[in-house]
Amino acid sequence: MNKKEKPTELSYYGLYLLSHLKENHPDKTGDAAFIEARADHAADVYERARLEGYLPEGAHEVAMAALLEGLHFSKYNTAIEVLWNECADEVPQSEAPAAALKLLPYLEGVFARYPLSDDFAYSPEYEQLCTELTGAILISLEKIAFNRKAKLRDNIEAIRTAFELGKAGRAATREERERLARYCGFGGLKCILNPAASLTDAVQWAKSDLDLFPQTMELHRLIRENSASENEYKRYIDSLKSSVLTAFYTPSAVTEAHADVLHDYHVRPLRMLEPSAGHGAFIGAFARRDADVDVMAFEKDLLTGKILSCLYPDKKIRTEGFERIEKPFDGYFDLAVSNIPFGDMAVFDPAFSASEAPARRMATKAIHNYFFLKGLDIVRNGGIVAFITSQGVLNSPQNEAIRLEMMEKARLVSAIRLPNNLFTDNAGTEVGSDLIILQKDTRKEGLTEDERLFTRTGTLRGVSTNSYFIEHKEQIVCTSAELDTDPYGKPAMVYRHEGGAEGIAGSLRELLDRNLHARLAMRLYSGGIRDARLKEEQAAKVRAAEPILRTEDAGLAAVSENIPRTETAQSSAPTKEEKPEIEPPVMTLYDLFGFTAEEVRIAQTDGKPRRRSTRPKLAQPRQPSLFDTQTQTPTSTQTGRTAHNSAESAPRPAYPVENGFKADMNRRITDIEQQMREEEAKLSAEERQRRYEEEMQPRPFDGIMESHLKEGSLVRVNTTGVRYQIGYLKGITPYGATFHPLELDKAQREKAAAYIALRDAYERLYAYEADKHEENKMLRESLNARYDEFVGRHGSLNAKANVKLLMMDASGRDILAIERVEDGKFVKADIFDHPVSFALNQLTHVDTPEEALSASLNRYGGVNLDYMEALSDNSREELIDELKGRIFYNPLVGNYEIKDRFIAGNVVDKAERIETWLAENPHGEREKEALAALQESTPRPISFDELDFNLGERWIPTGIYAAYASYLFGTDVSIGFSESMDEYSVKCSMKNAKILDQYCVKGYYRNYDGIALLKHALVNTVPDMTKSIGKDEHGNDIKVRDSEGIQLANAKIDEIRNGFVEWLSEQSPEFQKRLADMYNRKFNCYVRPQYDGSHQTFPDLDLKALERRFKIKDVYQSQKDCIWMLKQNGGGICDHEVGTGKTLIMCVAAHEMKRLGLAHKPMIIGLKANVAEIAECYRTAYPNAKILYASEKDFSPANRVRFFNNIKNNDFDCVIMSHDQFGKIPQSPEMQQRILQAELDTVEENLEVLRSQGKDISRAMLRGLEKRKINLSVKLENIAHAIKTRTDDVVDFKQMGIDHIFVDESHQFKNLMFNTRHDRVAGLGNQDGSQKALNMLYAIRTIQERTGKDLGATFLSGTTISNSLTELYLLFKYLRPKELERQNINSFDAWAAIFAKKSVDFEFSVTNNIVQKERFRYFIKVPELAQFYNEITDYRTAEDVGVDRPQKNEMLHNIPPTPQQEEFIQRLMQFAQSGDATILGRDKLSETEEKAKMLIATDYARKMALDMRLIDPDLYEDHPDNKASHCAATIAEYYRKYDAQKGTQFVFSDLGTFQPGQWNVYSEIKRKLVKDYGIPASEIRFIQECKNEKARKAVIDAMNEGTVRVIFGSTSMLGTGVNAQKRAVAIHHLDTPWRPSDLAQRDGRAVRKGNEIAKLYADNKVDVIIYAVEKSLDSYKFNLLHCKQTFISQLKSGAMGARTIDEGAMDEKSGMNFSEYMAILSGNTDLLDKARLEKKIAALESERKTFYKTKNASTWKLEDYTKKLAHNNDCIVKMTADYEAFLARVQTDKEGNRLNAVRIDGLEATDHKSVGTRLQEIAKNATTGGEYVRIGELYGFPLLVKTEPILKDGKEVKQNRFFVEGAFKYTYNNGQIAMADTKAASMNFLNALERIPKLVEQYKAQNVTYERDIPILQETVGGVWKKEDELKALKAEVAALERKMQLELTPAKTDIQENGAVFERVNIPQIIGDSVHLVRIEYAGENNNPNKGFKI
After folding, report:
1. Does residue 642 surpass a pLDDT of 90?
2. Which residues, other chains included, contact 1570 with Cβ-Cβ below 8 Å and sequence gap of 6+?
3. How far is CA 1649 from CA 1180, 1445, 1553, 1609, 1645, in A?
4. Distance (Å, rounded) from C-alpha 415 to C-alpha 512?
5. Which residue has the higher pLDDT, 1626 or 1244?
6. Considering only CA atoms, which of 390, 423, 386 is closest in space to residue 497?
7. Verdict on whether the full-model pTM lies above 0.70
8. Best CA proximity match to 128, nearest among 77, 91, 78, 69
9. Phi-psi domain of 1658 (left: phi exceeds 0; alpha: psi -120 through 50; beta: other)
10. Quick one: pLDDT at residue 338?
11. Which pairing describes strands 1837-1848 and 1851-1861: parallel, antiparallel, or unpaired?
């Protein structure tokens, strides 16, 4: 490796110098020798200085001066400064550093003309240098732009050529191929991403790109003109965008070198794969050496693929991703070669995702890893994989498993690290890459040493590097190496090669030659090639003997080959010899349906045994390959057609007799067949055989390609005469398909033909009616005729003999379902009688106006009085009078509307619009009545003072935020908002001290100024800051979270957020009213109608049957109201408490919707445990209804398909199934695609927003969004695949025609995916969501899309909000997407910004670090949130409904801790303090467990409280006072109390549930009940013992009968779907669940209607016993749940007293706070309060400490600025005086030019030549010893010279500098005399004096900044910490609490009398810091002495 190496370890001075060089001289960072020499010199200087007596600080200062001598002036920074100041229009500020680095070589000539030195920037010549640099930079930018212009021109011409060739349909000429070959993608041409539709778009372009604007417009115009549609144009533009990121095309010199060396080593493939072809560099390189190589190439980019197809028309080019390659190609290719894509973009490949090998699953997450493993799959054994890829494949430690997988199936042939500048010329970027060559060897045994190195990652100079390159540095192609950063800013080794592409190729050849010679196994490679050649030769012989089939449709052939090839390109290509075809193994129809060999035999022989035939076998025709070009010979088929046509054209006779036509037709057929048999008899056997083989050849399908035909469909094709063939279709494309004939006997052929006619009739009928929504009687008659004909001749479709035939057809499963079973017989499905894909409205008469109104709403969606009058016996006027108050005239729509619709929704806006209408139009009483009704219903406006505001609410205009920010920072701030990104952008053109100091947080790695913190404040997040606490063994920083920095940032963000509210309150009343009005119009404008359903009569409802079966006498009023709401709204939320009759609501509402036509085919889904009862309830309520209920058997894999088709083909009143069964229904692929497309469109919108806002977009941001786009595509594709693979490929949800879903226990679907930036907030649930919930979203969106409205579903649950109000957002996301959009809420974060406040608590952890805990704990604007919820919700408690159910009598059963528990509590406290898990008797915590320490502690505390044996059943024993004993005693007490009535009890516990063979609490309590209390074991059951629904139902029945008296279970298994309340008298809660909803579900098992024993014998009460061990978490958790449930109930009922609520801060994901945990375990509630206060005090004190630390920094800065201001003012005064003196003395000539009156001491002459010559002599020869020496004067100003030592080329030399002395010593050109020009030398001093005004201006400019910032800094320094009073108050509160504890505690005393003295000892628990201690206090005193002494 020829390069300048840096030392492996750099000293302190070396590291400092390297850092300095990176910032100021990046071109020198690679010079390791220079860095080492300078660092050593500085170290020597330091040592010498110390020896001379310098203190360390002074010595270090001297050493630093030596280290940086000559390096203070930076060409790089000077270029950046010029770019910023003079070329800002040409180069954006963000790109200036990169541009400066590129420009430096162009600017060297300018820099060379100036004597550069450390203080040159302060010399007069610096301005002149900058002026020259400006011109040079502008010229250089033009050169660079010219290169970009040429590149863009080449690309445009290549694209134009490709389009022209496509239109002309011909191959490219040589000149055109040259144009195509110059295409190099759009890497480095980001300008094409800018808008360029019209000339006005130019204003959005950066000035540096404007010269490319005309060409970009031309490019867009070219693509648009050649796009068939807007969608195609968009796809082409997408192609351009991705090309900007991925166009890293390999230089041709490198691909040629690659191909040359492989060719030299006889790697000459027959079959080559290029999985990411780009512009075909590798294809061309290998094709030039072997034109016959058979190539398959993939290129995902649309434009590049088009150009590639034109360049290589004879190759198989596939414009799609490599992952689309078919499985039959595994092990097929000899060589896979490519420059593969790289990045952590995911790939969708089901085979990899489902693989058992972790490495293969992991490979799908990064595209480069996937390409390697997939490439090895695709090549044959011995084949070669040669890929250029990113360094990440080999360097990343995370990829070790991938590399090991590679090495286990392949040999390492070569691994070469390529230089970073490999792609610079083509893509304008530097990126690290490797060439890896592998040889597949599936039989290899073990790894070589180099292969083991290849799999490992080590470190090289602190950078992760593959161990192979650490050991084999010769494998790195470079001429220089340096430690730098990669494009993402991370440390990396950067390698460069000075020889460019040609030099790189030369080095590559040498290394490849060496590697292949040493490692390529030629025998292994050649063996595979030989085998392939033999197979190809045999195949060629077979093909030569077969007739060649030719097609008239070349397009079909191209598509059947799965490649985009034009027909002319094929036809114009020269004819070649047969070459190896790329063909996978061919599948038969039986393979297509997965038939086994035996099943194939049975299907072909109809189940008969095999017989040996004596007849000679006919040769079977060869099946066509995937890429065969198939054509048809115009022989027998055309002859047959001619004969058939001529027969048709003959005159037809008349048929006067019945059936005469049929008889004549049969006669004709017989005659033609006889004639054909006679002709065939004349043929020879060979000729007959040849004809037979021709007929059995696959050929293009010439029939009509109807929409229902698909891959594998059976079809009938007419052949010669009246003969026909039956076959199947394959290779279906938009252009046609291939017909594959089947060999069938006559009977089979006739049956298949009859089936095909029947199938086509069914498909045509269903498609027509589903599309047109109108009945087609003719097609229905045809279907019946075809069916009757088939059944008459062959029996029912489902007959065993027919099923085999039907299942061979792709649609066979669907056709089997058009029969259904009734009374054991197959009968026709409903589709034979009437349409099933839409509703037929046959309503003709109604009895009441209300029914007329419902019918009108059903049919027209509104009040149609004409229709209502036609249905009813009433006149129009009578209808209006009857419905007065129910309907209102809406003048805005010119019609009547129902009250529930008119006085609903946004009534404020509606009333205003009607008022406007009335003012402009004549009107009558009906309009006034309508307006009055609206005005009366308007909600009371909320005043400004009542409102709570959050900074960052999306509905507040950004202008308000900008005004606040400008006020806050004292400078102009602009704020923008991207709705699609849900992101704020903040810009400030002039930052001041408030931004840079007062509101700035300085972190270890970066600073967050006020603008950065404002962005966080707007989205309510806190920066995640880190700091280094040292170095690891590799020299890398050990990073930890910077708690102090985060806390300070949070404090400042809080200050910004809180300041916004204060600022709003200070605004004018007019402003406040406008804001409040805006809020009211947006949120406080809804009215929920009072739905009154009392008028409903529910025809068909059998109340008598319901009373007999379910004791239901009538429908509750609450149920009627809810049903009416659902009918009016088309869905909603039924939030009725457990036991209030939701099941009946579902059944009646579903039937009513069906009856009235509001829903055509409703579906009810419920829990598996409940669904049978729901179905039974429906059957009982509506005995004549047609219900489809899904049993478990129906959903077995064998029956599921039939069941789904049954839904599709029949007109059911309702379909009922379980949640799990619903999850197995395939969702509409179109809907999934739309949801995916919406997400992708959002990404595109984000890009457009960024471009429009900033004129420019960084490559990193662009790549991030593109990566998100790819990963989102793959993620949703994986989700869709998971659904698909879990279900059968049958009709989907959309095709079933379901148009309303009733979801019972809807809270089961709350785990819906959502996006949020609040990823560290506890309690939000899983953002990825569950598959189950996503499936529900797809279904609801399908219905909503069909109706065009929100809702479309009804959610029913007594616990719609189970834990937190954040769940409301997900409910709205399901049901109200359009309304959320109207409120500007497009994400969870937007919703939370309006309705939630995040609490951020900082507390000390067990390691004394401050830990940040975030939670959405507070909710604001709660009444409006409730209003939004209630608008679509019917909420009722049991009391509201008036359900006859018992009351809940809660009792807290306190249990003192046992001695074992007392001891374990102490150990728990020790564990919580130390984190030492061995204290608990378990292994030490793992790294993952360390992060969840408090969750583990909480879990142990829960187990301890329940039973110590849950912790260790062997270590701990039973105790009479443990919870199990107390519970058993209580159960026995109730058992005996209600023994006569056989009272039953429920026992709940989610911990210690029943597990056979293991100790558990259930079994232990049962043991006690049986052994100690004599309760029969048969009367005690565990719900977990019920393994199926039958057993579960039996136990529930036994509970109701009283044969089972006690049942144990968990919340999930016993808490829902158990109606065993008949005899329930008590519920026992052994533990407290996490969620309020769980507690409600538990209690609802007994506290519900139908509890007879409690009503008659227990005062209508059910006792609910909560068992709580003292000093445990039991009571605390229970109280917390009660508080939460209260808030949720208040929100639902709208009875919220306050506008803000606090939910509490404990959850199952993180456990408890440390200090609260410690206090609760100590057993003192005062200590809990004290712990909370001390936690707040600790956090505030930490905040105060950080505040003063920051204040000190501002103090120092203020002092510095003040000193500098004073110094500058002094300089300005003195310099001004000097300049005025100069002006007073200066002499001028006649033209006014100043004379250079220099007088040199000892020189009489004053001419410029003499003066200049003398000055040059002085410069050469003077030695002043570092002193200033006078040499003359100018206008009274002394002229001085000084000799100074400088370091030049590592040696110390002397240099003379010249000065003019005034108040200061002035220089020109840094004091250097021009040595080549005497005149310039003589003018040096005059120039120095003339520079004084410029120096004064520089000082004044600095003063402007100082004068602006000093007042702000003074304000900061003079400011006080605003929370000081709060801290004092908290401390006073703690002190008062401590006094209270001392007075109130009454601890046990120990009195000891000793020698007349009495000692009293008291143990008092105290919290000190974060520890709990027992403090012993002794009181000592005489018996009669009241004064006592204290001893602690």
Report:
1. no
2. 1576, 1577, 1580
3. 19, 4, 28, 21, 10
4. 9
5. 1626
6. 423
7. no
8. 78
9. alpha
10. 92
11. antiparallel
DSSP character for 824?
T
**Pairing state of beta strands 1829-1834 and 1798-1800?**
antiparallel
The token pair that represents 499 in the structure block:
């020889």
* Cα(1125)–Cα(1089) distance, integer angstroms: 9
> What are the tokens at 1910?
């000093």
d(CA 1157, CA 159): 56
How far apart, in whole angstroms, are the C-alpha atoms of residue 1464 and residue 1441? 48
Strand order from edge to edge, sheet including 1957-1968: 1950-1954, 1957-1968, 1971-1982, 1989-1991
Overall average pLDDT of the 1939-1965 stretch: 47
Assign 618 a pLDDT band (cuts: 50, 70, 90). very low
SS (H, E, C) 497-515: CCCHHHHHHHHHHHHHHHH
- The alpha carbon of 1660 is separated from its chain's Cα centroid by a whole number of angstroms, namely 53
- Residues with Cβ within 8 Å of residue 1468, at least 6 apart in sequence: 1480, 1497, 1500, 1501, 1504, 1721
| Residue 1524 CA: distances (Å) to CA of 236, 1529, 1987 | 71, 9, 50
Distance of alpha carbon 591 from alpha carbon 584, whole angstroms: 14
- The strand pair at 1187-1189 and 1214-1218 is best described as parallel
Give 191-233 pLDDT, tens digit per residue: 777 777 777 777 667 666 777 888 888 888 888 888 888 878 8
Give me 1190's structure tokens.
């899904």
What is the pLDDT at residue 652? Answer: 42
836-856 mean pLDDT: 73
Q: Which two tokens stand for residue 165?
A: 């060739």
Residue for token pair 């293969």: 360
The separation between the first and the last C-alpha atoms of the chain, rounded to the nearest angstrom, is 75
Alpha helices in 921-1009 (DSSP H): 925-937, 958-969, 993
Tokens at residue 1053, please? 């963000």
Enter the tokens of residue 1537. 């109390």
Among 1727, 1695, 1643, smallest CA distance to 1971 is for 1727
**Of 982, 562, 1503, 964, the residue nearest 973 (C-alpha):** 964
What's the per-residue H, E or C state across 1628-1683?
Answer: EECCCCCCHHHHHHHHCCCCCCCCHHHHHHCCCEEEEEEEEECCCCHHHHHHHHHH
* pLDDT above 70: residue 559: no
Percentage of residues in the chain having pLDDT higher than 70: 74
Spell out the residues 6+ positions from residue 1984 whose beta carbon is closer than 8 angstroms to its own: none
β-pairing verdict for 1798-1800 and 1865-1866: unpaired
d(CA 1019, CA 1025): 17
| Interval 1724-1782: pLDDT, tens | 455 556 656 766 776 677 667 667 766 766 777 788 788 888 888 988 999 999 999 98
For the record, the structure tokens of 1302 come out as 């009733």
Of 90-104, 492-506, 1375-1389, give the lowest mean pLDDT range: 90-104
Edge-to-edge order in the sheet of strand 1624-1629: 1447-1455, 1661-1669, 1624-1629, 1544-1548, 1606-1609, 1580-1582
Please state, in angstroms and rounded to a whole number, the distance separating the CA atoms of residues 1850 and 1856.
19
Mean pLDDT for the chain?
A: 76
Select the more confidently predicted residue: 131 or 528: 131
> Distance (Å, rounded) from C-alpha 1259 to C-alpha 245?
8
Q: Phi/psi class of residue 1704: alpha, beta or left (left: φ > 0; alpha: ψ in -120 to 50)?
A: left
Q: What is the rounded distance in angstroms from the CA atom of residue 378 to the CA atom of residue 333? A: 6
Which tens digits make up the pLDDT trace of 1298-1312? 889 999 988 888 777
Among candidate residues 476, 417, 410, the one with its CA nearest the CA of residue 448: 410
Residue 1832 binned pLDDT confidence (cut-offs 50, 70, 90): very high
What are the tokens at 862? 């509104």
